Every structure is written in structure tokens, then in C-alpha cells.
């Protein structure tokens, strides 16, 4: 152990680690060199301690993330507690819908086709996906469907009774977005099915024959 005297009233003690005892007598220059050695070791110990603190802090930072992830899983399970078995299954299928190319716009998932079919064949495709052609219930949904910039079938027809427009779920049309002059059975054709054609306009609907080929939009409503 070496003692360094600072002034005449206090002294500072430094323990040497694996160092031989200092000579009993040494010059002033030797004392300065000897004092520098434990100083460097002290800095090294501080650096090591700081490194350990950094490792500990990193571990503490990771722990909340793991907890948050577990909490989200638990929250989903709690959220599903009061749901029916069918609703639970739909919640767990969210990732599946995204992987299959569906787009979510509350409260439904939408599928936009990459090929063209007749209105009836388009609807059949949606039904095979446990969905149906889109039913537009609000201005927000109307604006959403126009963003795809494809001429697409929607789930609206008067095939059952001419002039009585119904959605595919059997409900009557109450709010419409017909383009100017539509519907009109252009040139005497039986235009009994509806497409979104004029994407730059809020009133974008057009009636055409159901046998024409179009892209289509499926809608699968998720009731939470």
C-alpha cells in the first residue's frame, strides 16, 4: 500500500495491485512515475465498470421489449375472451389476409382482383374467398374504392327487378354515387350491373351489361 500526501492536512491511500513494494527512498521523479501507475489502473477499472454498466443497461432495455411483446399477445387473448369462436378465428387470420393481398379499411378487408371476369363470375370468386362483392355504405368507403384506379365491379345490381337496385346482401340502394346520366341502359342494352369507372369523380358509378369483363373488389367485413 502506498500513501500520497496532498498538502499537510490530508492523505490519499492507493492500493497497488500485483506491484512490488516501492523503494524506501526515491527521488521526486520516481515518485511522480509511481503515482501515475495506479492512476492508469484506476482509469482502467473505471472503464471496465462503465462497460459493465452499459451491458446491464442494454439488458434492461431488452426486457421491456420482451414484456411488451408478451403483453400484446396477452391483450389479444383478453380481447378475444368475449368473442364467438368464429370471431376469434377471424382475428387470428389477420396476417393471413395481408399475405393474400387483402387491404384493410375499417371495418372490412378488401381484395382487388388482378384479372377480369363477368359480374357473376367475379361474385363467385369472392364467395370462394368467404366474402362477396363490395357493398358501399359511406362516402369514406366510396372514396376508398376509387383509389385503386381500376374499373371494377361492385355488389350492386337490378337483375332481380328492373329499376330496383339492390346490394348483394339483399338491401335496397339508399345512397348512390351515379355518374351524370346514369343508370341509363345505354343503347337499349340490359345494363343490370354496376362498375366504378370514373375514379377522379366522387360520382363514379356506371351501369353496364353483367356479362362484360371487369376487375372486381371483394369485401369481407370483420365484426369485432
From TrEMBL:
<feature type="domain" description="C-type lectin">
    <location>
        <begin position="105"/>
        <end position="219"/>
    </location>
</feature>
<dbReference type="InterPro" id="IPR001304">
    <property type="entry name" value="C-type_lectin-like"/>
</dbReference>
<dbReference type="InterPro" id="IPR016186">
    <property type="entry name" value="C-type_lectin-like/link_sf"/>
</dbReference>
<dbReference type="InterPro" id="IPR050111">
    <property type="entry name" value="C-type_lectin/snaclec_domain"/>
</dbReference>
<protein>
    <recommendedName>
        <fullName>C-type lectin domain-containing protein</fullName>
    </recommendedName>
</protein>
<keyword id="KW-1015">Disulfide bond</keyword>
<dbReference type="InterPro" id="IPR033989">
    <property type="entry name" value="CD209-like_CTLD"/>
</dbReference>
<dbReference type="GO" id="GO:0030246">
    <property type="term" value="F:carbohydrate binding"/>
</dbReference>
<dbReference type="InterPro" id="IPR018378">
    <property type="entry name" value="C-type_lectin_CS"/>
</dbReference>
<dbReference type="Pfam" id="PF00059">
    <property type="entry name" value="Lectin_C"/>
</dbReference>
<keyword id="KW-0430">Lectin</keyword>
<dbReference type="InterPro" id="IPR016187">
    <property type="entry name" value="CTDL_fold"/>
</dbReference>
